[in-house]
Amino acid sequence: MCLSKREREFINDWLSYMDGEITLSDFVARWKSEGDDWKVYMRVMRHRINKKYRRMLNDLILMKKFLELEYHP
After folding, report:
1. pLDDT tens for residues 14-47?
2. How far apart are CA 47 and CA 9, in angstroms?
3. For the chain, first and last CA: distance in Å?
4. With 70 as the cut, is the pLDDT of residue 1 above it?
5. N or C: which end of the chain has fewer CB within 10 A?
């Protein structure tokens, strides 16, 4: 899979917060980095996930174009 275990946990925890299953303070307690503002780590994770998403999307478009060809190797 494209996401690391940690990235998948991060997304699942954020979705849990958005669904009201955990509080923001619980989310922050789990994901803040030592001595840094938790928003910095959030920005880093968003950047990593966004970068992987764009790469995966480009690969999917490439695969779709290949599979739509009438002539295959």
Report:
1. 999 999 999 999 998 998 877 667 788 889 999 9
2. 16
3. 26
4. no
5. C
> Hey, how many other C-beta atoms are within 10 angstroms of the C-beta on 56?
13
Give the rounded percent of residues in the chain with a pLDDT score beyond 90. 67
Tokens 């690969």 appear where?
A: 59
Whether residue 38 contacts residue 32, with contact meaning beta carbons closer than 8 Å, is answered with yes
Residue 33 confidence (pLDDT): 75
- CA atoms of 12 and 18, how far apart (whole Å): 10
- 31 is written with which tokens? 């994901």
